[in-house]
Automatic annotation (TrEMBL):
SUPFAM superfamilies: MFS general substrate transporter. Belongs to the major facilitator superfamily. Phosphate:H(+) symporter (TC 2.A.1.9) family. The chain crosses the membrane at residues 61-78, 90-109, 121-142, 154-183, 198-217, 283-304, 324-350, 362-379, 385-402, 460-478. It is a multi-pass membrane protein. PANTHER family: SOLUTE CARRIER FAMILY 22 MEMBER. Its main location: membrane. This is Putative inorganic phosphate transporter 1-9.
Amino acid sequence: MVPLQGHHHRWHGPLLRRLRPLLHPSHPQAPWPHLLPKTTPSHRQYNNDDDNFVIRRHVDSVLLGVALLGTVIGQLVFGRLGDRIGRRRVYGLSLMVMVLSALGCGFSICTSPSCVLVSLGFFRFLLGVGIGGDYPLSATIMSEFANKRTRGSFIAAVFSMQGFGILASSIVTMAVCGIFNAASHPNPKEKTPSEADVAWRLILMLGAIPAAMTYYWRMMMPETARYTALVELNVQQATKDMEKVLDVSLSQIAEDESLTLPQDPPSYPLFSKQFLRLHGRDLFGCSASWFLVDVVFYSSNLFQSQVYGKYLGKKYESNVYEDAIHVALLQAIVAICSTIPGYWFTVYFIDRIGRRKIQMMGFLVMALVYFAIGIPYASHWQDHINAGFMVLYGLTFFFANFGPNTTTFIVPAELFPARFRSTCHGISGATGKVGAIIGAVGFRWTSHGQTEHPKAVKTLLVILGGVCLLGLAVTYFFTPETNGRSLEENEE
């Protein structure tokens, strides 16, 4: 029952996030935001005075930045609340924030450009808060319910559901746009029809449906035994909760050993000298690794319009709905061929190979591929964006998911004491999203719009390769292996 609850969660959260590309090209969780710079319904609807339908760079960056900032705040706040008042209580609250803010995005006030963008930015911020809160809570709940022999696979399976969320959002986008296109058949050279304003709002609000459907199961879920026993110091209640859910004794759940209270439970506070001495190294390793992988992932989106533009056909020869359908189709193909396989390779191998080795392997392969396509980019790849290049570039996404993108979600949920577990996972994830802000917003401004220049693309690719090598070094020196040990053993 518990794994299925987690799977529902990881499907609906990414669906909310992956629907965002139709609205805006640089949503923080969109894998291919570059594909939509001039063709989305909202762009054509609110930029009709511009023949190129290009949104201003400062507006683009603000809409991207507020969602990422919301994610940072959500991870910190909900992560701390998960340790203070319980995982289960906060889990339902984060879900409601996501559902209401997703609906709010669709109901963004008025239709004038300035008004709708301000309203949309506000609800995107709230959506980021809800999404951020789900990260530490999902990982912590799954880790505390799972057995040490299969814990990595369960947490990875929870995280990997976002691959199917990517695919589902693409299908929803194609379906909605296909219906609107069949009903109106707009001329691509004429003014964008007013119905397009309904299309993007509908797509955003549909993402709230699968999220809301999980609320009942979240509320029926008991508190985790480890939180009840080790944080609230109530072993008797923990035993009753777990026996009610799984119909087995607590001793069978807790790593085949009896879970008892320590005679002298630790009392040191968060960020005390004792905490930093015992767990500071681990917190640095988790945070730094997540920071570096997010810098790489989000900054790589800046130049992809040039890389993949040839696969989208000529600009402005399709109407707004056909453009969105083409983009969603390409997203679906990439998800099926690269993203989803990467996730499920991790699910299969995580408890066989170990977290640390997979994370190091992912960083290393990503670095080698970035160097292979980056160093000769201006002299060779620029004029030969062919299937070989696409395969190489797809490998970066495969080994990000069969690598640090997944393991950085798993390891923080296994390393820290129960009373700090959700907080430390939130700190690690928030640090990662700071890296995302630097990679997506910071690089966007420092590049001054030159990301399509061959030398700029080459420089960025080489830098990303260097960042991956730095991630490899951080993993080697600061990330311990958590495979095969109970959470209590990892804590010690």
